[in-house]
Amino acid sequence: MQGFDNPRDAVVITGTTSGIGAAAAKYLHEKGYFVFAGVRQQQQADTWTETVGHDVNLLPVVLDVTKQNDIARAAEIVKETLSARELRLAGLVNNAADENLGPIGVLSLEVFRREIEVGYLGVVTVTKAFLPLLRQAAGRIINMSSVNGRCTFKYHATTCATKYAIEAFSDALRMEVRPWGMHVSIIQPGPTDTPLMREKMVEEFTRKLAEYPQDQLDLYFQDFEATIQHVKSFVERISVPPRGPLDKLRRLINGQGWLHSPLEVAQVIERALASRRPKTRYLIGAQAKLIHAARQLLSDRAFDRVLGENVFDF
Ligand SMILES: NC(=O)c1ccc[n+]([C@@H]2O[C@H](COP(=O)([O-])OP(=O)(O)OC[C@H]3O[C@@H](n4cnc5c(N)ncnc54)[C@H](OP(=O)(O)O)[C@@H]3O)[C@@H](O)[C@H]2O)c1
Q1: How far apart are the CA of 15 and the centre of ligand 1, in A?
Q2: Ligand 1 and 193: CB distance under 6 A
Q3: Which of the residues in the chain have pLDDT under 70?
Q4: CA dihedral of 63, 65, 68, 69, whole degrees rounded to 10
Q5: Contacts of 245 (CB under 8 A, 6+ apart)
Q6: How far, in Å, from the CA of 98 to the mean position of ligand 1?
Q7: Is 160 a catalytic residue?
Q8: pTM beyond cutoff 0.90
């Protein structure tokens, strides 16, 4: 256990303005880690400062994972702070992502490029920048994948391709860093209560997809306006917290689903950082486990019909 006034272990987390990244930053800070909280803009760094005050154990750093200058500057700030505060870099949590939904035939190439650039090349670039500091401390690398890193769903090509890439990257990295006593863990949350599964999902349809020509949308959606309403009610439905274990079971059976708390994911991240023998993969939540088991049991076509084409029910 670390001392709160004098933590020794530091962690860098990307994408801490909301959702899982914000929950992980708060939770690890409470657990006594020194947290470098990555944000994209100075204004967001100021918001962190307003939240925690000028806490000496949480430092917001501007770190857009697509900007080489930001990454180099953040690595420099982290290096100087570690040295000044006599800290070790115990971990890097690659959490940032910019997910997009939609049919492959409709989405622009720019969307595919952008998602890979943030969600995969961002992970590669940030990892390479912090590798020397992590190596010195036998630090851990924790990469945020998803149940989408193992199973593919309709209209999720960009997200699933990005997460599959993270899975392969993490497996190779794990073998390469073993000589320094380092560990790499992949986190695979099921649906989690963050802006990504609420307002951003609605925005995907109401704003981003709605900008494509109607004749292209008509190829996939019989009535796009009705689809938007359907997505809104899907988000409302899964956002209702389950009333207990029986309600969870009922929802698992009828495929309705629910959202896990980001704190649950943050706690798993802490386990991956602190446990003596961390797992290579942490699959989080009953829904993710069920989907994953189905993927292993069913043929490709059977999985498509039962879950791949239906789980998001748009
Ligand atoms: N929510 C789920 O159901 C779920 C399930 C499985 C896996 N995940 C994974 O969990 C991670 C966190 O997602 P979340 O659900 O917490 O979503 P979120 O609330 O939308 O958070 C995404 C974070 O990434 C940041 N980000 C976006 N582009 C960035 C860039 N270029 N550079 C740096 N940061 C950037 C965002 O910052 P801005 O606010 O500046 O945009 C935000 O802080 C993602 O890797 C996601 O794929 C989520």
Answers
A1: 6
A2: no
A3: 1-6, 313-314
A4: -20
A5: none
A6: 6
A7: yes
A8: yes
